[in-house]
Design brief:
The complex is a heterodimer of chains A (525) and B (103). By secondary structure, chain A is an alpha/beta fold. Chain A has three domains: 207 residues, 3-Layer(bba) Sandwich (FAD/NAD(P)-binding domain), CATH 3.50.50.60; 127 residues, FAD/NAD(P)-binding domain (3-Layer(bba) Sandwich); 171 residues, no CATH class. Helices cover 21% and strands 28% of the residues of chain A. Chain A has eleven helices and 31 strands. In chain A, strand 10, helix 5 and strand 11 form a beta-alpha-beta unit. In chain A, helix 4 packs parallel to helix 5. Chain B has 103 residues and is mostly beta strands. In chain B, 13% of the residues lie in helices and 33% in strands. In chain B, the strands form three sheets. Chain B has a five-stranded mixed beta sheet with strand order 4-3-9-7-8, with helices on one face. A three-stranded mixed beta sheet of chain B has the order 6-5-10, with no helix packed on it. In chain B, 41% of the residues are buried. Classes of the chains: A alpha/beta (525), B mainly beta (103). Chains A and B meet through strand 8 and helix 3 of A and strand 1, helix 2 and strand 6 of B.
Amino acid sequence: MIQKQVVVIGGGPAGLSSAIAAAQAGARVTVIDENQRPGGQLFKQIHKFFGSREHYAGRRGIHIGTEMLKEAEALNIEVLLNSVVYGIFEDRTLGVIRDGANLSVRAERVVIATGASENPLVFPGWTLPGVMGAGAAQTMVNLHGVLPGKRCLMVGSGNVGLIVSYQLLQAGADVVAIVEADSKVGGYHVHAEKIRRHGVPILLSHTIREARGKESVEEATLVRLDKNWHPLPGTEQDLQVDFVCLAVGLTPLTELGWMANCRCQSVPGLGGFVLHHNDGMETTVPGIYAAGDCAGVEEASIAMEQGRLAGLSIAESLGLIDRTRSADQRASIQERLKELRRKPAFYDSSADLGNREASTADRASLEPLKVGPGYPTEERFQQGPTAIVECMQEIPCDPCAYVCPRGAISVGRPITKLPHLDTGKCTGCGLCIPGCPGLAIFVVDNTYSPTEALLKLPHEFLPLPKAGEIVEALDRYGRRVTEGRVIKVENPRKFDHTPVVSVVIDKRFSNEVRAVSVRRGRHGR
Amino acid sequence: MKRSAMLRVNEHPILGKRPIRKTVIITVDGNPVEAFEGEPIAAALMAKGIKVFRKTRLRKDPRGVFCAIGQCTDCVMTVDQQPNVRTCITPVKEGMEIRTERG
């Protein structure tokens, strides 16, 4: 029997945050993880995170993971890898398999941070090789550098479906379509826009009917759905694809909690049965805490806050920190959690600007954008270069408010407020472009020449255009509108791999063009 | 080999160029296959366009990678005579003998 003070099961964002918070207070912490490397799914998250700038937002998941591991190391947190916790027994005794040997580890405090697993979707052909979880494709591409195929059908338009689609494009695959059974996009609007402008159609009220192929996927059939999600006969269409990704939700991994007799409750909005917990993340079994997706499937930013809460509560219960001090810290975390959990809602242009109401309608039109707080006036466009913040949905995100050297962008509280652009202060420098995790900020200069406009656009794809090169200029749906002449490509270190392309186009299209496509192949010639 | 060049992501807009890794030879159903040492077996096979990792016992249906993080066991193969090895989390070693699992 090995005695430990605090054992954290799972070294993902929630587990590492709880370990760090408890260790900072002086606890001796051991993290047990079944993988070869800690970090959970953070190392395949190569996009810039949403959330509050105070807590990693604007940074890519991979970098957050690296930073947390450094922090854990500096705090002397013990990390046992390739070690599977298969059970929790009496008195918080854990059964662990490590290097083929069985260990019993007894802990004064336990954090269950086991995460979640991807849901399958059953349809004829769903077991064919080539049908896989969207997270599986993400792992293969971003961690192992291998594409599962060349042409993908993505099922589901939640943030996972949208983000993985974008990352498949970045790795050089085609995403032929995203199908969504619901009548609106499930994930953040800005994520959807990122892939729409590279020509990926999002087919709402559609699903996959069948995947076919001899030994692996060669073809998929889509079908339209009515508003009750029933297939409409005669609306089938076939797509040539060689892999199908399923992004249809996650299920919390709660088995260890069940085994330890923790109360579990079914919360459909959180992915099914979740570990019930109090404000300090303690489950119904004293000494056992839960954090992250096993306590409800939410965003990584929330998992990290929950981890901090669990770590603090543990330190408090072990008498390592002063109760009043930790109460303050916990209250501010609760406050942030509340903000991060505000439901995304579309900006409603009909509401009074001073007292904005949220509306849930999915808006494709530009009209609400034009009266939004991030959009310059017609007169302002005549005066010179200006940013346009195409952020129309109230989501918890504020890094843009910190990147403008002139303070022209503000978000304020709550963090879900739409960014406000002070066009009097904005000079159109474009430093905000790589600072927006949603890549929703652009610069337009309608005064570039009598007939031409200059656009500054984010471009996270290969090949990068070169100065002087003629490129295709694409609209918000990836359709070619005109051609453009690249005059500059900026990609300094501080942009963190979000290059900004300055391109000159026919002025008539300055409000339509939002992306460029390089005519050379991926690896150039 | 041409196909593998297409499926390997050697240069990436965010991750940059992949570091050079040691190439080793493994066998898949007796055929020699080039792989990178330390990468998951599943990644090495996927890069070669190999998608069928096993056949089910009764209906002989093909199965391949589904979760890629060691949870679902759909990708198990026989590795060095040991059956039911999760190829998505088992690193490649020089000379590994990998067999499509049947049943």
